Each structure stands twice: as structure tokens, then as C-alpha cells.
Amino acid sequence: MARKETAADAANPGRLKQIALTYKMTRKADSKIGLVLAAVGIVTFGVFLAIGLLIDHPYYLGILGLLLAFLATAIVFGRRAERAAFGQMEGQPGAAAAVLDNIGRGWTTTPAVAMNRSQDVVHRAVGKAGIVLVAEGNPNRVKSLLAAEKKKMARIVADVPVHDVLVGSGEGQVELKKLRTTMLKFPRVLTGPQVTATNDRLRAMGDLMSNMPLPKGPMPKGMRMPRGGPKAR
């Protein structure tokens, strides 16, 4: 019992520190965050307290108003912090991969399954909606990456639906802050075992990172990688 209490006490400072850090980061992008949170809390508490005075139950409604004010403030803070984080990530390479990693349970994300020299990149996510290819980069260049990746997967998972999403702010593109919502709107057509089987087949196919030959340890100066990569024995 004492161990559980000690662990909880040790975790609380970490959580408070994380909240404070999140607030500081949010305030850099949203200077009015403090005023907004204060207004939400005060108005919520004030409304319930006024209702309590009208019906002659100020204590009960005051306590309820205090709890709901805290809840409303936490919800508003979470949404504005998320919006500020998306604003800072917008346009940064790999931003979509960060969103996919936090999409929630039931999804398996593989970042950078395809990439070109211009750093246009395609990420892959597998879930009950099937396979979703999420592309970042120039719309004209990234179309060829998507087409090549679809053609490669068609030989292995032809029976699984494939969706493609292009992250951006232009026509036909999905904004970074709406990527998670867009992913969750796709109809669920696969069962759990089918998702597992799809992941296994795609894992056997490999991806850009796992197929890239990387030397172990520092490479000696003047040494060149052999053409065609390492050969299997």
C-alpha cells in the first residue's frame, strides 16, 4: 500500500510539470490562452452559482459549478493546446507521422514507406478501415510515390481496401489538424484477425527504412558502399 502511495506521489509532480510545460508551449502560439481559460472557468461557475441562488441551493450548485468549471477549463485547454501544437508542426517534415502515431488503438503506423530526393514522403497506417497511405510534400511529385506504393501493395494485399490522403492546405488536401478525424471517418470493413494478417503480409514486404542497407558502426573514411547493397548468402 505504501509503495502505491509513493508511486502516486512521485507521478503527480511529473504530471504537473508536463501540464505547465504544455501551457508554456501553448502560450507561445496562443497569447490569449490564460484569459480564455479564466473566462471559461468563471462564467461556468458563475452560471451554476446564480442558478443555485435562484432555487435556494447555492452550496450544492456552487460545488457542482466548481467541478464543471474545472472540467470545461480542461477541455478548452486541451483543444487549444492541440491546435497550437498542430500550428507549430504544420509544414514540418514528418508532421503527419507524428499525428498517425497518436491516432489511437487499432492502428499500426509505419512512417516513411516511400520517399524521394525532394523529401516528399508517404506513411502507411493499417486498421479496420484497411490501408491508408498518407502523403506529405509537393502534390504533383507525391502522386507518383502513391501510385508506386499502391502498385507494390496490390501484389500482396489486393483484397484490402487502400485509401490515400494528401496532407496540406490546398484543394483536395487534408489539413494536418483534420488528419486524425479524416482517418477515423473511413468505414470499418476489416475484422481484427484480418488487420493482423494484413500487417503480417506488409511487414514481410518490408519498408523503406528496413530495406535501407546501413553499416554497423562508423564508416571508415574513403570507404564506398558496394553497388546493389549487400548480397544474401
From TrEMBL:
<dbReference type="InterPro" id="IPR025445">
    <property type="entry name" value="DUF4191"/>
</dbReference>
<feature type="transmembrane region" description="Helical">
    <location>
        <begin position="59"/>
        <end position="78"/>
    </location>
</feature>
<feature type="region of interest" description="Disordered">
    <location>
        <begin position="210"/>
        <end position="233"/>
    </location>
</feature>
<dbReference type="Pfam" id="PF13829">
    <property type="entry name" value="DUF4191"/>
</dbReference>
<keyword id="KW-0472">Membrane</keyword>
<keyword id="KW-0812">Transmembrane</keyword>
<feature type="compositionally biased region" description="Low complexity">
    <location>
        <begin position="219"/>
        <end position="233"/>
    </location>
</feature>
<feature type="transmembrane region" description="Helical">
    <location>
        <begin position="33"/>
        <end position="53"/>
    </location>
</feature>
<keyword id="KW-1133">Transmembrane helix</keyword>
<protein>
    <recommendedName>
        <fullName>DUF4191 domain-containing protein</fullName>
    </recommendedName>
</protein>
